[in-house]
Amino acid sequence: MSIRARRDLGTPTLAMLPRIADSLSFLYLETVRIVQDDLGICAQVESPRGTERVYLPAAALSCVLLGPGTSITQPALASFARNGTSLVAVGAGGVRSYAGILPASLTTTWLERQARAWANDDQRLAVATRMYTYRFGAPGESASLARLRGMEGQRVKALYRILAQKYGIKRFRRNYDPSAWDSQDPVNLALSAANSCMYGVVHAAVLALGCSPALGFIHSGTQMAFVYDIADLFKMQVTVPLAFSLHAASNPEREARRALREEFRLLKLMPGIITATQQVLDPSVASETTDRTGDITHLWDPHAGQLPAGMNYADTVTPGDDPWEQ
Q: What is the mean pLDDT of residues 93-118?
C-alpha cells in the first residue's frame, strides 16, 4: 500500500467519528512532542534508545491534556481538529489554560437551547435550580437561589468533615494557591489535579454538544462558566472522595489523574456528563440521541421556523416585491 493510500485511509470522515459518549475520556501527556506522520498522530518520547513513537487514538479521544514540556505541530493540531478532539494545556502548579477545537459540521441545536435559557432570567433560574436539584435532590418550593447556595456550602463542608474522619485526617481546609503549590497537602494537590482533569473532560463534552463554555447559569464572568456548572454536578461524587483517598500518596497529582481515568472507564462518566448537560438545559428533549454531527444547515425564519438550506428561493418572491429594486 502506498504512503498516499495509507494517509487517505487515516483521514477521518463523518461516518467514522464515534459519538462523544462512546469516546475515551482523556489522555494526559507531558515531556513529549506530538507530531503527525503518514500513519497518524504520535507522541515522540526521547529515551536512551533514541526517539520512540507512541501513536494516539485521536478519533476516539474526547480530550488531550498537554502537561508541562509538551509541544505540538500544526499538522497534528489540524488532525485533532478534524477528529473533534479538545486540547487542554495544563500548566505547572495546576494553572490551566483551555484551547477548544470544534468540527465545522457540529450542530447548533443545543447551543440555541442554551442561549435561549441563558438570556431569559426565569429560564436561567430554572436551569440553575435543576443543577442544584441534580446534586442534592429537590429543594423546598420556597428555596431561593441564595438559599440554595448556602445549602451547597453547608453540604460541601459536611462532606469534607465526613471524608476527613473516614481517612483519619485531623483537619482539612480547601486551599488552592499556585504561588505556594509545593507546600500544599496531598489532598489539596490531588483535588486540584483531579478537578483540572474533570474540567478538561467536561469542556470537551460541552464543545461536543455544540454548547458555549462561557454561558453559565450558576457561574458567570469567565469563558469557562458553563464548564464549572457541569463539573460541579460530579465533583462531590467523584473528585472529592478520590482526593481524600490519596491523602497518603507520594505523588498525589499523578495518582489522581490515573485513578480518575479509571473512574471514567468504570463508571461510564462521559455518557453521564452528556446526559446531565442535556437534562439540566432542557429535560423535555434530553432523551434525544446526540452525536458529533448534526443535520444539514438550515435557514431561520421568524414565521416558518427552519427552512432547508442549499435551495434557491427566487420563486417565492413575486414581481415588485424585491426590496433591492425599490
A: 71
Residue 30 or residue 268, greater confidence? 30
Same-domain check for residues 92 and 119: no
In 141-224, alpha helices (H): 145-166, 186-209
Bridge-based pairing of strands 61-66 and 24-29 is: parallel
Q: Which whole number is the average pLDDT over 61-76?
A: 84
Helices 225-235, 121-136: axis angle to 10 degrees equals: 20
**Assigned C-alpha cell, 79:** 488532525
Nearest Cα to Cα of residue 298 among 84, 112, 83: 112
Annotation: binding site for Mn(2+): 152, 219, 232
Q: Which residues contact 157 (CB under 8 A, 6 or more apart)?
A: none
Beta bridge partners of 26: 63
Q: By residue range, what is the domain housing residue 22?
A: 3-99
Summarised one tens digit per residue, pLDDT across range 39-52 is: 899 999 888 888 88
- Whether residues 139 and 200 share a domain: the answer is yes
State the binding site: 152, 219, 232
Q: What is the pLDDT of residue 46?
A: 83
In the chain, % of residues over pLDDT 90: 34
Whether residue 147 sits in one domain with residue 76: no
Q: What is this structure's pTM?
A: 0.69
> CA-to-CA distance for 108 and 215, rounded, in angstroms?
14
